[in-house]
Amino acid sequence: MNALGFVLIVAILLWIGLSAWAVKDIAKRATDVKKRQHKTAWTNIVVIFPFLGLLAYGVYGRRTLR
């Protein structure tokens, strides 16, 4: 296996791990009605837009779900 293949495998595993962490973090946040709508939206963003969604959730999403 060459270096590019190794880097690709590490990047994919990192992406899967961060996505799983983000979905788990979203699931454990507040449960009132308004926040539930935000939780659904953030979960969709993280799943549909893998890299940008993770970045946006890390920068902005965690503050909105407190």
From TrEMBL:
Segments forming domain Cardiolipin synthase N-terminal: 18-62
Keyword annotations of the record: Cell membrane, Membrane, Transmembrane, Transmembrane helix
Species: Pedobacter chitinilyticus
UniProt-recorded name of the protein: Cardiolipin synthase N-terminal domain-containing protein
Keyword Transmembrane helix: yes
Cellular component terms (Gene Ontology): plasma membrane
Pfam families: PLDc_N
Subcellular location: Cell membrane
Main location (coarse class): membrane
Membrane topology: Multi-pass membrane protein
TM spans (from-to): 41-60
